[in-house]
Amino acid sequence: MRIGVDLGGTKIEIVALSVDGSEIVRRRIATPAGDYDGTVGAVASLVASVEAETGQRATVGVASPGAIDPSTGLLRNSNSVVLNGRSLKRDIESVLCREIRIANDANCFALSEAVDGAGAGESVVFGVILGTGVGGGIVVGGKVVPGRNNIAGEWGHNPLPWPHAGELPGRPCYCGKHGCIETFLSGPGFAAAFTKRTGRELTAIEIATAAERGDGEARDALGAYEDRLARGLAHVVNLLDPGVIVLGGGLSNIALLYDNVPALIQRYAISTPVDVRLVPAARGDSSGVRGAAWLW
């Protein structure tokens, strides 16, 4: 039996999978706000309760925001700031009395979709999170590629490729730079661009809904978003040449992206035509926790 834990800022989710990937147990609780020790204890309690219910001892994988610094073993770059600078892996191992595997949540998302999701059967899969931030994960041959510094797949903090004059220097990013892909393609970035362009304040999903209903300003804004997404993904195609790109996160629910972005990628990729599929996640919100289980 494999156990996966998705450690988020507001919720902790756990799933137990059988050998064939079928779901045995799933639970979700609120994350103890601002409480590191409480968070570690909550993970341990969830694992213990699932193992007691199933009568089986399991391997444990954890999906976490941020990444483990390989030189120190401490977590860094997490938007759940209470985890930063803490030895999360070692602390969970201590209370569970076993080795665990831990990976960035975008990597776990990509792994889930590569193993038994929308990317199953492909040798190279790129998983994309389009939400409050922009993340990515790389899976090759069914294995996550974390990179030497555990930052592989962080395409959201590269500059937007082939920028237009009006896109320079770009909005400031929390990472300290300007014009990162995340500042354009995240939900807040998309909404901010729309407000700057129109003076109207709508969420990213509201803009997409308005575009589908024929709103001209929303359609123009979504068209600009699609072109920017295609430019960012064309860079990924040029570097990794994936067979499939799987989208997750709130903005992955915008159906028009799958109609329009693939043709735009062809415009920007170095070799045309390129054979790459752009698809929504098959496992939806379950991909992160399932991917954590598949780390073993």
Task: Tell me what you see in this structure.
- This protein has about 300 residues and is α/β, with parallel strands linked by helices.
- The chain folds into two domains: about 110 residues, Nucleotidyltransferase, domain 5 (2-Layer Sandwich), CATH 3.30.420.40; about 160 residues, ATPase, nucleotide binding domain (Nucleotidyltransferase, domain 5), CATH 3.30.420.40.
- The protein is built from nine helices and twelve strands.
- The strands form three sheets. A five-stranded mixed beta sheet has the order 3-2-1-4-7.
- The longest helix is centred in the C-terminal third of the chain and has 25 residues.
The gist of it:
The protein has 296 residues and is α/β, with parallel strands linked by helices. It is 38% helix and 20% strand. It is globular, with a radius of gyration of 19 Å.
Coarse morphology: globular
SS-based structural class? Answer: alpha/beta
Mean pLDDT: 96
> How many DSSP helices?
9
Low-confidence segments:
none
Percent of residues in helices comes to 25-40%
List the helices and strands and how they pair.
Elements: E1 2-7, E2 11-17, E3 23-30, H1 36-54, E4 59-64, E5 67-68, E6 75-76, H2 88-96, E7 101-104, H3 105-116, E8 124-130, E9 134-140, E10 143-144, H4 181-185, H5 187-198, H6 204-212, H7 216-240, E11 244-248, H8 256-268, E12 277-280, H9 287-293
Parallel strand pairs: 1-4, 4-7, 8-11, 11-12
Antiparallel strand pairs: 1-2, 2-3, 5-6, 8-9, 9-10
Helix pairs in contact: 1-2, 3-9, 5-7, 6-7, 7-8
